[in-house]
Amino acid sequence: NAGVTQTPKFRVLKTGQSMTLLCAQDMNHEYMYWYRQDPGMGLRLIHYSVGEGTTAKGEVPDGYNVSRLKKQNFLLGLESAAPSQTSVYFCASSYSFYTSGKNNEQFFGPGTRLTVL
Amino acid sequence: QQPVQSPQAVILREGEDAVINCSSSKALYSVHWYRQKHGEAPIFLMILLKGGEQKGHDKISASFNEKKQQSSLYLTASQLSYSGTYFCGTEKSGATNKLIFGTGTLLAVQP
């Protein structure tokens, strides 16, 4: 099993450009999450999904959009990138304890380092 | 709303012990602990679900005091491999699987 994979690993954008980050998991997890990690700030939740076709806002959703058309994929979009969105982005996935009875630990992807100039 | 972790950083010699604390201003359903090495993804350590619960994993254990809304991570006889940043993630409700992470505690274990 590949676990959680993210593409791309690195990206440099100019202010105003758009891009999409792709997250894929092969563990049949119901839940998927997008976080950003900045120095001294820890991991902050951007958006998350509790199942295919559903999304919800996290702590810092402004400037981002997400879609979960397939259970295994979770896309994070930046419509008009800003320098404040320079960060490392992590995707994660987990089971739902209530629907599966399994431990809901989160499995993280390797991250995407995004720089906006 | 973000849980507060203390200390922010700690330096140990191999074999020494450390305690990392995580406090929340909100009532908690569960606390997760993760470790992240530099340039890598966070890795799950353990979940504590009930007030007063204590769990162990090798020489790393944790407690969760539901009434005080806090959790502590105990690292005993530290090894070089314990170095990294430790994050607690707090869950207010078991229905969402949504975690709010603390700002992290940097642990450096020296020979």
Task: Please characterize this protein's 3D structure.
- In chain A, 3% of the residues lie in helices and 49% in strands.
- Chain A has 117 residues and is mainly beta.
- Chain A has a single domain, classed as Immunoglobulins (Immunoglobulin-like), CATH 2.60.40.
- In chain A, strand 7 (65-67) and strand 8 form a beta hairpin.
- Chain A is elongated, with a radius of gyration of 14 Å.
- In chain B, strands 2, 4, 5, 9, 10 and 11 form a six-stranded mixed beta sheet that branches.
- Chain B has a single domain, classed as Immunoglobulin-like (Sandwich).
- Chain B is built from no helices and eleven strands.
- Chain A binds chain B through residues 31, 35, 40-45, 48, 50, 58-59, 90, 94, 96-98, 103-111, and chain B through 1-2, 32, 34, 40-44, 47, 87, 89, 94-104.
What CATH architecture label of chain A applies? Sandwich
Mean pLDDT across all residues of chain A, rounded? 94
Q: What is the CATH architecture annotation of chain B?
A: Sandwich
Query: What shape does the CA trace of chain B take?
Result: globular
The main pleated sheet of chain A reads as: 7 strands, mixed
Q: How far do the termini of chain A sit from each other?
A: 36 Å
Named CATH topology of chain B: Immunoglobulin-like
Query: In CATH terms, what is the fold-level topology of chain A?
Result: Immunoglobulin-like
- Give the helix/strand class of chain B: mainly beta
What CATH first level of chain B would be assigned?
Mainly Beta
Overall mean pLDDT score of chain B? 90
Q: Which range does the strand content of chain A fall in?
A: over 45%
Integer count of domains of chain B: 1
Can you write the helix and strand succession of chain B as a string?
Answer: EEEEEEEEEEE
Question: How many alpha or pi helices of chain B?
Answer: 0
How many domains, in number, for the residues of chain A?
1
Q: Structural class of the secondary structure composition of chain A?
A: mainly beta
